[in-house]
TrEMBL record:
Protein name: Uridine phosphorylase
Organism for this UniProt entry: Deinococcus terrestris
GO terms under biological process: nucleoside catabolic process
GO molecular function: uridine phosphorylase activity
EC number per UniProt: 2.4.2.3
Pfam families in alphabetical order: PNP_UDP_1
Catalytic activity: uridine + phosphate = alpha-D-ribose 1-phosphate + uracil
């Protein structure tokens, strides 16, 4: 049956799905990188496209901003047959060593959000990326020569609540940066036995109110998407053997 929010049917969605928050980014990814991309949903501006990349069937599905929306989308994608979910977005750097437009491959997400708290009934939990996805993404970044970091991120609800002091405190605990969807994607994927990952390009340092210049961030996003798609090809190749 058609899903409530995505309005998609089984067969519309590929087993591998990239998850940008921004519908504009979803369209750009589909039109720039995928062959024969087809729009399968635009309900609520949650644009979803399916095409192929180097012979592998891939979907790109908008999540919107924040964990509530991302959790809904991930849940419905699971019901539609997706098997690997990879968030592709941006994050605010927690430490100056994460340079503007650098790629951050998340190994896990500190769940500083309300959605996973409600889903877990307040139980302690560590939302983590799937090892195979992290491994494939890091291997792809190395092969493509993309500057990258792999490690812990934090998922938060309140974009404007972050302060430099908050960022440096969590940086001292190993957090590389802050974003708004990964913990929910990781948890929903775990509940359904799916693989999940999160790749982000650094849009700014939390200690600096200025975002990275558009052209610099666009280059970082391009590198991130290429790494994510190359990782999908690696994962598909491994499964074929």
């Amino acid at each position: 049956m058609s899903q409530i929010h995505l309005r998609a049917e089984p067969g519309d969605v590929a087993e591998y799905v990239l998850l940008p928050g921004d519908p504009g980014r979803a369209r750009r990814i589909a039109e720039t990188y995928l062959e024969d991309a087809r729009l399968y949903t635009e309900h609520r501006q949650l644009l979803g496209f399916t095409g192929t990349y180097q012979g592998v069937r891939v979907s790109v599905q908008t999540t919107g901003m924040g964990c509530p929306s991302a959790a809904i989308v991930a849940e419905e994608l699971a019901r539609l047959g997706a098997r690997t979910l990879i968030r592709v977005g941006t994050l605010g750097g927690a430490t100056p060593r994460v340079q503007p437009a650098d790629l951050v491959v998340a190994t896990a997400a500190v769940p500083n959000d309300g959605t996973t708290r409600q889903m877990l009934g307040g139980a302690p939990y560590a939302p983590a990326a799937s090892f195979e996805v992290v491994e494939a993404a890091v291997a792809s970044a190395r092969e493509l020569g993309v500057p990258h970091h792999a490690g812990l991120i934090m998922t938060e609800d309140a974009f404007y609540a972050s302060t430099p002091e908050h960022a440096r405190l969590w940086a001292s605990r190993g957090v590389l940066g802050f974003e708004m969807e990964a913990s929910a994607v990781f948890l929903v994927a775990a509940q359904h036995g799916l693989r999940a990952g999160c790749l982000t390009a650094c849009s700014n340092d939390i200690g600096d109110p200025q975002l990275v210049p558009d052209e610099v961030l666009a280059q970082g996003v391009d590198r991130m998407v290429r790494v994510a798609l190359d990782a999908v090809v690696r994962l598909a190749g491994a499964e074929a053997h």
